[in-house]
TrEMBL record:
This is Hydroxyacid dehydrogenase. PANTHER family: 2-HACID_DH_C DOMAIN-CONTAINING PROTEIN (PTHR43333), D-ISOMER SPECIFIC 2-HYDROXYACID DEHYDROGENASE NAD-BINDING DOMAIN-CONTAINING PROTEIN (PTHR43333:SF1). InterPro entries: D-isomer_2_OHA_DH_cat_dom, D-isomer_DH_CS, D-isomer_DH_NAD-bd, NAD(P)-bd_dom_sf. CDD domains: 2-Hacid_dh_1 (cd05300). Pfam families: 2-Hacid_dh, 2-Hacid_dh_C. GO terms for molecular function: NAD binding; oxidoreductase activity, acting on the CH-OH group of donors, NAD or NADP as acceptor. Belongs to the D-isomer specific 2-hydroxyacid dehydrogenase family. Residues 25-312 form the D-isomer specific 2-hydroxyacid dehydrogenase catalytic domain. Residues 106-281 form the D-isomer specific 2-hydroxyacid dehydrogenase NAD-binding domain. The keyword Cell cycle does not apply. It comes from the Bacteria. Keywords: NAD, Oxidoreductase. The lineage of its organism: Bacteria, Bacillati, Bacillota, Bacilli, Bacillales. The keyword NAD applies.
Length: 318
């Protein structure tokens, strides 16, 4: 019987309650909201479930650990070297963000071109201004840095607005949802120079940290809108702030930051060409159900010897 210990503030009531009967009979599921509460159960844990962050000391205490299932796609907050040294399997929640994050990306672009913030402010101030000038998504070019599952979903939705779509992936292999697929530094430069909207969807790995630099931002159109739904460390945040302040790009929507929560001292809070959200692009009322499907599959695979979904390459970090 597998001993499962979940440590997360996420509500896992449905994950526990809806677990298939055959899995319930062959496992014990313990859910705690903090590692302090879970302390007495860690040493017997065969499986740890985490929202994506585990302290190395906690992992060291889990001497029977065979598998870690994260409830997030990102695994950059896990002690990957320790887990790799012990041959612990790590699986993530890749795929559960596709619908909500692609919808969120399109909503941010619409919020920008349809000046939703201005209209809201006018409503609050009882201002009737029917001469506000709006832009459109129609005919614009969107560049998607990170043409994975979420990027493909963004591309499909963007095509419904008659946008041209450029995607950047590691190989440059053409993908059906994109008009053009590019790779490498030359491909990135082309994407940045051509795009009216740039959406970043890269995972945080040793290879992607600091991926976007000031010289990359300098390639963008002055009327371009930049969206980061990836991780704060994939770009030079100070360079982005400077580009926004100097009008080198028109605006940005940021859901992730170099430091979270975003410090009150950050100039981003008061910039009228910036839309800020608190790392919630992947949030959805359906999230737990979707990640539970992955967990149940993987639990059955571990018990029966089948193939697990979303196994992470610990050397690559995703």
């Amino acid at each position: 019987m597998l001993n499962i210990v979940a440590i997360t503030g996420m509500d896992l009531t449905s994950m526990q309650g809806q677990m298939p009967e055959d899995l319930k009979k062959r496992s014990q599921f313990h859910w705690f909201t903090s590692s302090k509460e879970a302390r007495e159960h860690i040493s017997d844990a065969d499986v740890l479930i985490s929202a994506g962050r585990l302290h190395p000391d906690l992992v060291a205490q889990a001497t029977k650990l065979k598998w870690v299932q994260t409830l997030s796609a990102g695994i950059d907050k896990l002690p990957l070297e320790d887990l790799a040294r012990r041959d612990v399997i790590v699986t993530n929640a890749r795929g559960v963000h596709t619908i909500q994050m692609s919808e969120f990306a399109l909503s941010l672009m619409l919020q920008w071109v349809r000046k939703a913030n201005l209209l809201h402010d006018n409503q609050q101030q009882h201002v009737w201004d029917h001469q506000v000038q709006f832009g459109e998504l129609h005919g614009k070019t969107i560049g998607i840095i990170g043409a994975g599952a979420i990027g493909e979903a963004v591309a499909r939705k963007a095509k419904a607005f008659d946008m041209k779509v450029i995607g950047l992936n590691r190989s440059g292999t053409p993908q059906a949802a994109f008009d053009t697929t590019v790779h490498g530094e030359e491909g990135l430069a082309h994407l940045l120079a051509q795009s009216d909207f740039v959406v970043v969807l890269l995972p945080s790995t040793p290879k992607t940290r600091g991926f976007l630099r000031q010289d990359h931002l300098d390639l963008m159109k002055p009327n371009a809108f930049f969206i980061n739904l990836a991780r704060g460390d994939v770009l030079n945040e100070e360079a982005l702030i400077l580009a926004l302040q100097q009008g080198k790009i028109a605006g940005a929507a940021l859901d992730v930051f170099a430091q979270e929560p975003l410090p009150p001292s950050s100039p981003l809070w008061s910039m009228n060409n910036v839309i800020l959200t608190p790392h919630i692009a992947g949030a959805s009322v359906h999230y737990t159900d979707r990640v539970s499907t992955i967990f149940y599959h993987n639990l059955r695979a571990m018990l029966d010897g089948g193939d697990m979904r979303n196994v992470v390459d610990l050397a690559e970090g995703y």
